[in-house]
Design goal:
Aspartate Aminotransferase, domain 2; single chain; binds pyridoxal-5'-phosphate; alpha/beta; binds (2S)-2-amino-4-(2-amino-3-hydroxyphenyl)-4-oxobutanoic acid; seven-stranded mixed beta sheet; 2 domains; four-stranded antiparallel beta sheet
Length: 395
């Protein structure tokens, strides 16, 4: 087995680690799948924004540059991370709020159909919002109950689809097992049943190659504080395929979604562009942080990032296997995202003791430890050091 230092020495992305703030007091940070590290460029950009733009331009900043940021940075993110042509992606709100908007919009483009399909393994916010939107619209939730590791496949989804299917909401990478769903075949299956699909890309944006336009995805959302490294609470993204734009009506249609923002007219007319997904005043500093994160990913290239992610996760699996720990993440690289999950009866205690020893993983109820491997910032040496601590504690 190659040493982790050999693997780092031949890693084409190795130099990117220096572009981030690395806390030398930590042995290993294995939680970039929950909150990514801080890019140095973002520190500088935000300091300049505060000093020169906020401090210097005050209200003039809106018309000089800030007003278009949700769309221009949305376009940058769409092009670099999502395979999305311009005019279909915005940066706004949280993933949860965008999901709420898109669930309503998606249900609205399939009038006469009354079911929303979701799997029981999906992230809590996705499940709760589907229930809430179904309640509000008098629709029914149809649950799919896959195995955690194999997760949602065409065979699992097919029996839940039919003439009543309006919307299907799926997460591209399962937040617990790390399973990567087959976006192409599942999207095609939903379309064959006449429904539309919303993909939650929180755990794949910036780390898995995604082709929303080419695969004819209808709607998508995702967060930017994980592999996009935009910081805690950074605004999320939302994508609406151009063919749905005219019919996509969202329920928080505030003044920022209006056709003419500063006309402040008596009657509401919705913007014909992707701006119709906005609601209120956008968080400028947060969007600038997203822009810096996106530019680092564009510079490295998602293809290279994905290649390193596969190598890092394979390496972690090898080390965990050697120690005899139970892994619930698929072993086939094409079937996993960028975290590896261990199941252990003492997972909570182990995760706490890892933190005491300078290794940050995360714990998910009831018995899972997730090891997030973020290709721009996690070195092979760091992964090895963190896993060695886990193995030592588990012995
Ligand atoms: C799949 C998935 N969807 C949504 C969210 C959260 O969304 P929000 O940023 O609104 O809390 C997360 C993580 O927090 C997630 O893992
Ligand atoms: N969004 C989070 C938060 O606000 C606090 C703590 C953690 C998170 C997370 O990102 C959780 C994450 N989406 C998960 O996969 O579990």
């Amino acid at each position: 087995m190659a040493t982790p230092h050999d693997l780092d020495a031949t890693d084409p992305l190795n130099g990117f680690r220096d572009r981030f703030v690395i806390d030398d007091d930590l042995v290993a940070y294995l939680d970039g799948n929950s909150l990514g590290r801080l890019p140095k460029a973002t520190q500088e950009r935000l300091a300049a924004f505060v000093r020169e733009e906020w401090g210097g331009r005050l209200i003039r900043g809106w018309t000089e540059s800030w007003v278009d940021l949700p769309v221009t940075v949305g376009d940058e993110l769409g092009a670099a991370l999502l395979g999305a042509a311009a005019g279909q992606t915005v940066i706004a709100d949280s993933t949860s709020v965008n999901l709420y908007k898109l669930l309503h919009a998606a249900a609205g483009v399939r009038p006469g159909r009354d079911e929303i399909v979701i799997d029981a393994t999906n992230f809590p916010t996705d499940r709760y919002l589907v229930e809430s939107v179904a309640r509000a619209r008098g629709m029914t939730v149809r649950w799919v109950t896959p195995d955690l590791v194999d997760n949602v496949t065409v065979e699992v989804l097919r029996p839940a689809l039919g003439e009543r299917t309006a919307v299907v909401l799926l997460s591209h990478v399962d937040y617990r097992s790390g399973t990567l769903l087959d976006l192409a075949s599942l999207t095609a299956e939903v379309h064959a049943a006449g429904g539309v699909v919303i993909w939650d890309l929180c755990h794949s944006a910036g780390v898995v190659e995604i082709e929303l336009d080419a695969l004819e995805v209808d709607f998508a959302v995702g967060c930017t504080y994980k592999y996009v490294n935009a910081g805690p609470g950074a605004p999320a993204f939302a994508y609406v395929a151009e063919r749905h734009l005219a019919a996509a009506e969202q329920p928080i249609a505030g003044w920022w979604s209006a056709a003419d923002l500063f006309a402040m007219s008596d009657t509401y007319e919705s913007s014909p562009t992707i701006r119709r997904l906005l609601s209120g005043t956008p968080p400028v500093a947060g969007i600038l942080a997203v822009q810096q994160g996106v530019r680092l990913i564009a510079e490295a290239g998602v293809e290279q990032i994905r290649a390193k992610s596969e190598a890092l996760t394979a390496y972690a699996i090898e080390l965990l296997d050697e120690a005899g720990l139970e892994i619930v993440t698929p072993r086939e690289p094409a079937l996993r995202g960028s975290h590896v999950t261990v199941r252990h009866p003492d997972a909570r205690r182990l995760a706490e003791e890892m933190v005491e020893r300078g290794v940050v993983p995360d714990f998910r109820e009831p018995d899972l430890i997730r090891l997030g491997l973020s290709p721009l910032t996690t070195s092979f040496a760091e992964a090895a050091a963190g896993i060695a601590v886990l193995v030592g504690l588990a012995e």
